[in-house]
Amino acid sequence: VMDLVREWGADAVKFHMDVVQDMSMEDKAKEFKEYFGWDMPSLDSEMLPLEVEQLLCPNVREAIDKKEAEYLQFRPGFAVEAARIATVVTIDDEWKILLQKMDALKQTVGLAAYKGSEPLKEYQVQGFRMYQKVENKYKARSVSRWLRSKPKKPT
């Protein structure tokens, strides 16, 4: 599970950088802190997206390692438990949204027959694209949620 968190961490950086690509550096830094839970390292505004990813990925990997150590201090096995919970909650949230979008797609694809295309084929193609976007989003949001979570001490 922790290997998956690390893999998704790199994916989370790519996903996040796609989302914020048109923002100013100040807004990117603010969004990064809200998304990952710590300050973004200093970036040159002239850096290419690939260079930014190469700088941020090790940063996120290091944060994942620190968070795992923090969770292990709290309770052995808690890092994996927290990752599973974060993933399930995130998938549940994203799945509900996807189902709503798929329902709306079903209604609009019916109009595809009027433009001469096959509605079923149109639904399959667009639905698959929507699923791929959701898949990337839930991976990134799972890591974000896991990194920002804090274990509660028993009272």
From TrEMBL:
GO BP term, pick one: protein import
All residue ranges annotated as the SecA Wing/Scaffold domain in the record: 20-147
Superkingdom of origin: Eukaryota
A Pfam family recorded for this sequence: SecA_SW
GO CC aspect terms: membrane
Gene3D superfamilies for this protein: Helical scaffold and wing domains of SecA
InterPro entries xrefs: SecA_Wing/Scaffold, SecA_Wing/Scaffold_sf
The protein, known as: SecA Wing/Scaffold domain-containing protein
